[in-house]
Design goal:
Helices cover about 10% and strands about 45% of the residues. It is mainly beta and about 190 residues long.
Length: about 190
């Protein structure tokens, strides 16, 4: 299946118990505009058993170590500080020994070649920002740099099953899908 564009992401922050979403951010356009995202680890490495000089059994049940890399344009600083677990003092944010990112969930919105909306969800994990790149200005117009975040994801109980990743196609049933990914959130922002 082909994907066209990358319109927005919704990022939800879990409470301290990691059970309910307390806050949801929508990033799009000039406020966290989505540039690209790669999700890896959806496939578990094969486990094999050999006997009598041949492979006699294989299994690929489950997922591998699910991670994502997400590039965004100009995410709101307050949102970024929250999802990265930074200590904030006024207009200063700190990263150090007490940095402890909260659990988050996310839904990325794209569409197929026919224009049907598609949604990719990662159900519970943590974001990090491993690198900040600064570039000198040139005589030409210097575009701003994007922010790259990396996420590590785990299973979360959804309808009695461990779920790490989900995909929903179309608008029908989307609200129920979103409610499963962002449990017990009071009111979701439009977007």
């Amino acid at each position: 299946m082909a994907y066209v564009g990358f319109e927005e992401v919704k990022v939800g922050i879990f409470d301290a118990a990691g059970e309910n979403i307390e806050e949801v951010f929508v990033w799009k356009d000039e406020d966290g505009g989505t540039v690209n995202m790669t999700i890896t680890g959806l496939e578990k490495e094969v486990t094999e058993v050999y006997a009598s000089n041949k492979r006699v059994w294989i299994s690929k049940k489950g997922t591998g170590a699910v991670t994502n890399t997400f590039e965004t344009f100009n995410p709101p600083q307050a949102d970024l500080d929250k999802i990265l677990g930074r200590d904030v003092d006024g207009t200063t944010s700190w990263v150090g020994e007490d940095t402890d990112p909260p659990y988050v969930a996310m839904i990325a919105k794209t569409e197929d070649v026919d224009g049907t909306p598609m949604y990719f969800a990662l159900t519970k994990g943590m974001f990090g920002q491993n690198e900040i790149a600064l570039n000198t200005r040139t005589q030409e117009t210097t575009p701003p740099t994007n922010t790259t975040l990396s996420g590590s994801w785990q299973d979360r109980d959804i309808d009695g099953k461990g779920r790490t990743f989900g995909k929903h196609i179309g608008t029908e049933g989307y609200d129920a899908f979103e409610a499963l990914v962002f449990p017990n959130v009071p009111v979701l922002p439009e977007g």
